[in-house]
Amino acid sequence: MVESVKLTFPTISQKILNLVSTITKLWLEEIEHSMEIAVPIPRDFAEKRTVLLARCLVEDITLDMQAWAIDLGEWLRSQEFPFSSILRTYQLHRNVFWRVLQPELQAFSLTRGELHYIESKLGKAMDESIFWAVYHFEQMMNRELVQKEETITYLHNDKLTMLGKIAANMAHELRNPLCAIEGFLKLIGESTREQEKLQSYIQVVMHEFENLHRQLTGFLSFSKKPILDEVFKQVQMEKLLEEVELLITPRILGENIRFEKQIHPCTLSCYEEGLKQVLVNLLSNAMDAVQNRSDKFIRVSSTMSGNSLTISVENNGEMIPPEIVENLFQPFFTTKQNGTGIGLAICQNIIEKHNGTIHCESNESRTRFLVSLPIDGA
């Protein structure tokens, strides 16, 4: 039976070649009438598919089928057709092909087994063509995604490089006069020890000066140039949080926010000013987040697990949507009207310098930022 079918293949192959024009015409009409999106496949591409199916009965067309799939796939991709539309065109061709060919096959004296063998041979070739079309389409999409990711990475790094240059310039333009101001404030403070009211004013100025210095230092963390005071040392976690609490207390009291803390006593090897800035930034964001709540609540807690410390800054503000959570630490990304989008990026930069991690979790009842740090700083 198989031998007789093999002898019939050239005749059937020629019959399919004679039907190429008819099958192509009907296929293109089906595409035009059946699909919501117009897919005007060039006629030479359309005819080539049927020709390849005819040839598959008498020769190995694997390489030619792959080449056709690449050419057609690139054309379809250049037209930006949806992938579902591309697959639909293949399905329509299969339907038209068999609708035209099956009546013609009846003219041959074929047994049911022989007919099944021919249909299997042609069906396999059709399936192979779809596979190669999907494969090459996938390859093209992956290449485009890689190119886009490379472009995004380049633009992202370009922004950070620009920010680094700005930061380095700020170091030169602002740090020197700030150090001079700090020096003279200390001299004034020493020479007016007996003037209690003046001393209180100086303390306010020094407090604001330290805050400005901290913000500038955090901004400078984006610069590739080392920061002179970025020195790691042993710090008591409880003491560090007390200093942070002093900085935010005026706003906590002024805005009637319930503030809780549960700190596990420990000694941490860290860049003190940097970690202090991270906590101040997270707490400031938490205070912004609870503005629309009648019962405003913020909690800071820390827990230890093995050689790791986890610090949690939690608030009962509105839920942050997942799509925003994913981008919170991207430089220049912000949802605040007057935000710069670098606060959390700076926090992440500082934490990564500690070999730690920072991430956000948010649901309808609470939002919290979790900072994980190695105890020994390693």
| Spatial ordering of strands, largest sheet | 2-4-5-7-6
Integer average pLDDT: 83
Work out the strand percent. Answer: 5-15%
Question: Which bin fits the share of residues in helices?
Answer: 55-70%
**Helix/sheet category:** alpha+beta
Number of strands: 7
**Helix tally?**
11
Distance N terminus to C terminus? 75 Å
Helix-strand pattern, N to C?
HHHHHHHEHEEHEEHHEE
| Main pleated sheet | 5 strands, mixed
- Supply Rg: 35 Å
Q: Label the overall shape.
A: elongated
Low-confidence stretches: 1-6
Describe this structure in words.
The protein has a five-stranded mixed beta sheet. With about 375 residues, it is an alpha+beta fold. It has eleven helices and seven strands.
Describe the structure in brief:
The chain is of the alpha+beta class.
